[in-house]
Design brief:
With 502 residues, the chain is α/β, with parallel strands linked by helices. The protein contains 17 helices and 22 strands. The longest helix is centred in the middle third of the chain and has 16 residues.
């Protein structure tokens, strides 16, 4: 039996932005009833490809066909009319409108005198939710929905205008395991209904669990397309980076020094209680636990972003003032936050301005900041961290996610911290950049920096940490040395089933 024709085809598509060639001769085919994985390092051109499919960017060359007919979208409306919908990592719902109003925005059913038929809209939304197995009230406001529920609403919105081609761009980056499973069940139902799904992710386990075919991109070019069943993780990595990644977790052995960071009895009522631990110079200590265990909240309190009710924080034996980030920075603390876009960067500012935000005063003279010093400092750290950017004066929003993460790291490493707190340092970045970030953390530990790493990825925790601290429901329940740490011991502690001091 011959294979059905693809519902969407790209051939020899190219796109440039000034002197930067983002895509060159890219090809892609999507088949009905299949999920197709798209992988590549940050900066490989995946986001540009998505924007061309969505009608947000016109291609400079090449052809896009849907159902065998050439499509030249002049805007997102043309792509939607052709049945193409994009589900982004960060949904864009109107928070003060109801779920039903968001789904039928600009396409509301009307009654006589062109009045919106709210009842028909809610009933149509309930019917869509029933098809997808979603349990949400169509009349509830979008404000307060979890990221996972917002993405399900976006999928329902796509089905409301009969989308047959769904593009999912890193949809699981901010989801828990249960939420990922629920999203995957919805995607499976879409496939069974004949939809074609383009699934973009840095998580190989998700690619192999969901996708039948996988396309690899590198440096704006198509590298390969093959059946997922014929590929291995190692082969995917080789195709993505164009080289062997010798070690994803290049953890060097170090000798722990004196205590650098001491946290004693830290409590914030209703959030975490009695948290105490020590991180020594030269150590990488992982703070693990399930989503909601209080890990990020503890880090923010230690750094002074959030206040705490009881306890104390000491750096090199000196007690820090409560809720004072300036004092924390002066004492040698640095915090790379979980949400780099909202908390780590000013997206409208340039790469160089973001990279030097923590050094405004040292780089100024007589209270005036001169561009030459700022640019030289930014260039130094951009080269050390291998930030890929056309110009340091470009907005940081133009960089890929992995390169944005490097800019956040550059901003804090330029302060020469004694204690570095990194919250989900490799979330949403590709395998090659992950290895670079891990190498950097290992080098810093080797230089005597105390590193506290918060991570939801168990392989990262086990591969990089000298000790694993595990939190469960706001309390520290285990301190496991590297020699005894494994997936079972960490997960038992994280779920409240075991643990204890190492």
């Amino acid at each position: 039996m011959s294979e059905p024709p693809p519902v969407l085809s790209l051939r020899d598509v190219s796109k440039s932005f000034g002197a930067v060639r983002a895509l060159q001769d890219v090809r892609l085919d999507l088949w009905p009833g299949e999920a197709h994985g798209l992988v590549g390092e940050n900066g490989a051109g995946k986001s540009t490809l998505v924007k061309i499919l969505a009608g947000a960017h016109p291609a400079d060359a090449g052809t896009l066909t849907v159902d065998g007919k050439e499509l030249r979208p002049t805007g997102p409306g043309d792509a939607q009319a052709a049945g193409i919908a994009v589900i982004y990592q960060e949904p864009t719902l109107f928070p003060d409108l109801s779920v039903a109003e968001n789904i039928f925005m600009s396409r509301q059913p009307l009654r006589a005198l062109r009045r919106i038929d709210a009842r028909a809209m809610r009933e149509a939304t309930a019917e869509l939710f029933g098809r997808l197995g979603i349990h949400l009230d169509p009349a509830r406001p979008a404000r307060g929905l979890s990221i996972a529920d917002q993405q399900l609403v976006e999928i329902a919105k796509a089905l409301a205008f009969d989308a047959r081609i769904l593009i999912m761009d890193e949809p699981t980056a901010a989801l828990s395991g249960v939420e990922v499973d629920r999203l995957f069940s919805v995607v499976e139902s879409l496939k069974q209904a004949g939809a074609a799904v383009l699934f973009i992710s840095h998580r190989f386990d998700e690619i192999f669990a969901l996708c039948q075919r996988v396309t690899v991109m590198r440096d704006g070019r198509w590298v390969s397309t093959g059946l997922a069943a014929d590929l291995t993780v190692d082969e995917l990595v080789r195709r993505m980076v164009g080289r062997e990644v010798s070690s994803l977790y290049p953890k060097a052995d170090t000798t722990a020094g004196e205590p650098r960071l001491e946290v004693k009895g830290l409590t914030r009522h209703g959030v975490f209680a009695g948290v105490g631990f020590t991180v020594r110079g030269g150590e990488i200590v992982a703070l693990a636990g399930l989503v909601g265990a209080g890990r990020s909240e503890v880090a923010r309190a230690v750094f002074g972003v959030d206040r705490y009710d009881e306890g104390e924080v000491l750096v090199d034996g000196e007690r820090l003032a409560k809720g004072d980030t300036a004092a924390a920075i002066a004492a040698g603390l640095a915090l790379v936050p979980e949400d780099r876009r909202q908390q780590g960067l000013v997206m409208e500012l340039s790469v160089e301005r973001n990279a030097t935000l923590t050094r405004r005063w040292p780089l100024s003279r007589l209270g005036l900041l001169f561009g030459g010093g700022e640019r030289a400092a930014a260039r130094e750290w951009s080269e050390r961290l291998r930030v890929k950017t056309a110009r340091l004066t470009d907005p940081v929003s133009t960089l890929s996610g992995g390169n944005q993460q490097k800019v956040v790291l550059a901003k804090w490493l330029s302060t020469q911290p004694r204690v570095l707190i990194v919250d989900e340092p490799t979330r949403g970045i590709d395998v090659g950049t992950k290895a670079e970030v891990h190498r950097l953390l290992s080098e810093l530990a080797g230089q005597g920096v105390a590193v506290l790493m918060i991570s939801s990825e168990l392989p990262e925790v086990l591969g990089m940490a000298d000790r694993v601290l595990v939190m469960h429901e706001g309390r520290l329940v285990a301190d496991i040395p590297r020699t005894r740490a494994d997936e079972e011991s960490v997960m038992l502690a994280a779920t409240g089933q075991g643990g204890g001091a190492g």
